Every structure is written in C-alpha cells, then in structure tokens.
Amino acid sequence: MTLSTEHYFNTPVIYALVERIFNENFNPTLFMGIKKEQGTFFYPGEMHDYWEIVYVEKGKLTVAEDEKIYELSECQAIFHAPMEFHSFWAKSEDFPVKLKIFSFGIDTTLAHNLSKGVFTFDIDQADRFADIFELIKKHTQNIQELPHPSEINHIDKVRALKGFENFLLEIISDNSPDRTLNAKAGAKRYQEVVRILKENVHDRLTVEEISKLSHLSVTYIKKLFNLYAGCGVIQHFTKLKMAKAIKYLKEGYSVGEVADMLSFSSSNYFSSAFKKETGMSPGAYKQK
Fold it and tell me: Of the CATH numbers 1.10.10.60, 3.10.50.40, 1.20.1250.20, 1.10.10.1800, which one belongs to the domain with range 185-286?
C-alpha cells in the first residue's frame, strides 16, 4: 500500500537527537539520568509529550514501555508515543551497544501505527536511517529544535526533515512490528502490577494495597519496579496519574476537577505533583 504524505502527514519537528555507545569505558556520570549497576547501564523511566524513536544500531537492548517489556537486537527500533512511560537498559554481555535516539513531534492520522511493538529495518532502511540521522545532526549542532521547513531556507535542512517524514511513512506502510514480549516470569508479573495500577488510576493506592491486589509481597513489587521502571511503584503510579491529568486538561477540565477525578487530597497537592513531574503547573500547561 502506498500512502501520500500530503494527505496523512504534517512535516515532523525534531526536538533532540542522541547517540550513545555503551561499553566497558562508558562513564555514566557524564550523562544525566543514566545509572550503572552490576555491569548494566540503566536509564530510569520517563515520559514526555512528544514522540521518540530508539534504534539499536549494534548490540542488544531491553526496553520497558508502560507494562510491556521488549528485547531489541541490531537494526530494530521502537517508537514511544507521547506520555507513554518508557525506560531501557544495556547489559555488559551485550557490549558494545550503540543507540540512535530521535525525539520528535508529528501530526498524523497514522501515528498510532508507530506504537505497536518493535520494528525491524532491512539493510536499505538501516542505511537510510543512519544517513537521515547524520544529516539532521549536521544541522542541529547545539540547537535544541529545528524550525519548521516553512521557516527555513537551507535546502539540506528541508531535505533532512522531509527525509525523516518519508521514512516514517514507509515504516507505517510496509513494516509489520513484532509484538513479541519478554516472557520471563518477572516481566509478566511487572505487566500485571502495571495493569492493576492503570485500572485504579482514579483511586488512591498504597504499596500494601497494591500488594494485596496483585498477590505479591511488598518487597518483591519494589524489586520489580526498581528493575523494570527504575523508580518506586508509587512514583510510577503518580506518573500514570499525570498522563491521565494531561489528557483531562487537554479536554478542558479545570485543575480542581482533575485533582478530584484522580483522587488527590487537594488541588494544591495535585498542582505540586504535576509540576514536579512535568516542569510546569497544570494551569500553565492548559495555556500551552
């Protein structure tokens, strides 16, 4: 099936791009957020209101995406949707692990097709993705965001964005993602606990209550979330609440209404939690 970008896409905006090589000489103290534990480099969970693609150019990578755990190998990529919790880790036995990461914004009716699992690039796609990455890297330098093509004149900058746009369209049209999840017992239990958190996102839950609902010990739950989410279970629960809060704010609900819907004790407490997670107050977010 061939699709026209004129009907389905607005040209993407690149917010950031990162290249990381994890090996025995990698120093995590030089990179904010990355931790090292027993030979494994771990990037704790985050979520943001833009798209992100993580591409494994070399080695292997384990990725947590909401409750799902994926194993990525060379020439494989995964897309994280806006406000989708995600983290990853690279094990020493898989070194060197080379990653290319795009953060981008795009307005398309087909975007939901990007968030369906792991995509495998063929040799031609892998080469073109690397070329697009280098072209965008050449023109971003220290600029955090490339302007929209309508605001720039340099033909290479336009070509970089249009090349990425066409690449995304091809991935959506021709590449069926692999939805195979990590089948380890720990991963399955983590998925079950996250499912429980999502089902109760409008309620208040303590760790003890989560333990009863999942039939798992408090200690074991803490270990699961430290491993797969890089944060505590209540912190992860709060992140899920903030994702819902953003959805409700966009739908026009007031700050007080959202606080009540998500069972915060007060609007002030909700506002404080929201600002801690997103960097801005819910009122400021509504005015974006």
Answer: 1.10.10.60
